[in-house]
């Protein structure tokens, strides 16, 4: 069997176009475009790339992008003051503080200071709690995008056994909550899990969010299973001095057994930014007292 490739890049492009198409009616009703504020502290190169692509995607969708670049030595209080100002700014619907923050800043304190109604990353404990109890929440972008790809590939997920590898607050845990909401039977695996290959072999859906290059092997996959590879790992490339990106799943091996699989790059990655725009549009509608744009 050769797996169907789940084209996250194409799906994300479609989603972004649908979101952009909804912006004009929001502008008509409220007199302003939805606004996303992105805060970057310091000069981490990967973070700079992410912030640039978030800005570009926001503008392309017809939304307002507010970028705040602060020096690495910014104090925690100065960052909290900026977050408070963005909370109070009516033109800002979404606030994203790019992680990781410099070590002298307590990221939990900063995330806790964001108004949950503007928490488009979905990392605030209020949104995590709402997701856990099934109330209206802003849901973290990477698991939300992964769920959309799964629903597009499989339709109704109810009754399927999903194994989520990874239990981080930003991917693994919210992914498991979303799959549970869809009535999957959910197993969450992590670094202490015994017989991981044996557990993954039971899965109709495998979501790998580990951060270990090509850890999940082809003989772990049940024939026909759907594999969502969240991992992004930079490894040495074929040519000396060159690097390439690989996922947490050994792609060729897994694709030979799975029914469908996301590639890396071009799978889950593009969905993360598309879902950030989706959350910004949703937050803008909710803040304006309008019904959700879906
Ligand atoms: P974390 O490092 O926060 O979490 C990794 C998880 O994997 C932990 O729960 C850890 O278990 C588990 N783990 C580590 N080693 C093993 C192992 N040998 N067997 C089983 N489980 C293991 O990572 P994130 O959740 O933030 O990210 C995961 C991956 O997803 C990374 O590659 C990251 O780059 C990528 N990512 C991709 C995004 C995208 O847009 N596509 C967005 C966000 C992340 P334990 O809790 O026991 O330590």
From TrEMBL:
The keyword Hydrolase applies. Gene3D superfamilies: Leucine Dehydrogenase, chain A, domain 1, NAD(P)-binding Rossmann-like Domain. Pfam families: THF_DHG_CYH (PF00763), THF_DHG_CYH_C (PF02882). Residues 140-287 form the Tetrahydrofolate dehydrogenase/cyclohydrolase NAD(P)-binding domain. NADP(+) binds at residues 166-168, 232. SUPFAM superfamilies: Aminoacid dehydrogenase-like, N-terminal domain, NAD(P)-binding Rossmann-fold domains. CDD domains: NAD_bind_m-THF_DH_Cyclohyd. Its EC number is 1.5.1.5, 3.5.4.9. Pathway: One-carbon metabolism; tetrahydrofolate interconversion. PROSITE patterns: THF_DHG_CYH_2 (PS00767). The keyword Hydrolase applies. Residues 6-121 form the Tetrahydrofolate dehydrogenase/cyclohydrolase catalytic domain. One of its GO terms (cellular component) is cytosol. GO terms for molecular function: methenyltetrahydrofolate cyclohydrolase activity; methylenetetrahydrofolate dehydrogenase (NADP+) activity. One of its GO terms (biological process) is tetrahydrofolate interconversion. It catalyses: (6R)-5,10-methenyltetrahydrofolate + H2O = (6R)-10-formyltetrahydrofolate + H(+); (6R)-5,10-methylene-5,6,7,8-tetrahydrofolate + NADP(+) = (6R)-5,10-methenyltetrahydrofolate + NADPH. PANTHER family: C-1-TETRAHYDROFOLATE SYNTHASE, CYTOPLASMIC (PTHR48099:SF5), C-1-TETRAHYDROFOLATE SYNTHASE, CYTOPLASMIC-RELATED (PTHR48099). Belongs to the tetrahydrofolate dehydrogenase/cyclohydrolase family. Catalyzes the oxidation of 5,10-methylenetetrahydrofolate to 5,10-methenyltetrahydrofolate and then the hydrolysis of 5,10-methenyltetrahydrofolate to 10-formyltetrahydrofolate. HAMAP family: THF_DHG_CYH. This is Bifunctional protein FolD. The lineage of its organism: Bacteria, Pseudomonadati, Pseudomonadota, Alphaproteobacteria, Sphingomonadales.
């Amino acid at each position: 069997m050769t797996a169907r490739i789940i084209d996250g890049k194409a799906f994300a492009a479609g989603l972004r176009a649908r979101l952009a198409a909804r912006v004009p009616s929001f502008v008509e009703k409220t007199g302003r475009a939805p606004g996303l504020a992105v805060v970057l502290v310091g000069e981490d190169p990967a973070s700079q790339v992410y912030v640039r692509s978030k800005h570009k995607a926001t503008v392309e969708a017809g939304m307002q992008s507010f970028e705040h670049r602060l020096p690495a030595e910014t104090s925690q209080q100065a960052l909290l003051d900026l977050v408070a100002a963005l909370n109070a700014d009516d033109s800002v619907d979404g606030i994203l503080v790019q992680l990781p923050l410099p070590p002298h800043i307590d990221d939990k304190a900063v995330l806790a200071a964001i108004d949950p109604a503007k928490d488009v990353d979905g990392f605030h404990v209020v949104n995590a709690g709402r997701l856990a109890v099934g109330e209206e929440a802003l849901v973290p972008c990477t698991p939300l995008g992964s769920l959309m790809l799964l629903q597009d590939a499989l339709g109704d997920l109810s009754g399927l056994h999903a194994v989520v590898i990874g239990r981080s607050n930003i991917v693994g845990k919210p992914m498991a909550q979303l799959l549970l909401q869809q009535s999957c039977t959910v197993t969450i695996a992590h670094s202490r899990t015994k017989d991981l290959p044996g557990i993954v072999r039971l899965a109709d859906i495998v979501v790998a969010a580990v951060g270990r290059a090509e850890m999940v092997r082809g003989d772990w996959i049940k024939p026909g299973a759907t594999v969502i590879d969240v991992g992004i790992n930079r490894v040495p490339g074929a040519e000396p001095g060159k690097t390439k990106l690989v996922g947490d799943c050994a792609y060729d091996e897994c694709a030979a057994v799975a029914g469908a699989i996301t590639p890396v790059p071009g799978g889950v990655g593009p969905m993360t930014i598309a879902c950030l725009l989706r959350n910004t549009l949703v937050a803008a509608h909710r803040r304006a007292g309008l019904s959700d744009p879906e």
